[in-house]
Design a protein that fits this description.
Length: about 160
């Protein structure tokens, strides 16, 4: 056990990031083993645009739960790979609309069977006594009710 593991909840963000990186790395290998060149970090955008074919950048950022700058970074990568296309909104010239390109739609067709494999493998991985997915949902609900920062502020006030 290393220092970070021993620190418990103090390093929860680091531990979750480490877990996320391992799952993403293995996700890349799963796609590669199925003959698909795909970066798992692109998944939220590709998956969302598969179900909501045309979205403004702000709507997409909200939908995937990322900041606007993070979403823009992903979109630039996806546009460079020709997996998405963008155009100005006819109703609002300031607004850009994004959608899957023909290449992006073909990629989704290739990926769909792999999503079943990934879902089965991750279900097996997370189906533990303290089911990780259920715990994540619970923590997200707690954060929606009261942020981590607000909780810390309340604790600091009590300590005064």
């Amino acid at each position: 056990m290393n220092v970070i593991d021993e620190s418990g909840l103090l390093a929860i963000s680091t531990r979750l990031q480490r877990l996320s990186e391992q799952i993403r790395k293995d996700g890349f290998l799963i796609y590669k083993a199925n003959g698909i060149t795909f970066e798992p970090k692109w998944f939220p955008v590709i998956y969302t645009l598969h179900f909501k074919p045309v979205l403004g950048i702000v709507e997409l950022a909200t939908e995937i739960g990322y900041t606007h700058p993070s979403t823009i970074t992903l979109l630039k990568e996806l546009e460079k790979e020709k997996l998405i296309s963008s155009k100005k909104d006819k109703n609002d010239e300031r607004k850009r609309l994004v959608q899957l390109s023909v290449k992006g739609k073909k990629l989704v067709e290739q990926m769909q069977p792999v999503w079943g494999i990934i879902t089965s493998a991750i279900t097996e991985l997370t189906d533990t006594q303290n089911n990780l997915m259920k715990a994540i949902v619970e923590v997200e609900q707690q954060l929606a009710e009261k942020t981590f920062f607000e909780r810390a502020k309340d604790i600091m006030k009590k300590a005064e």
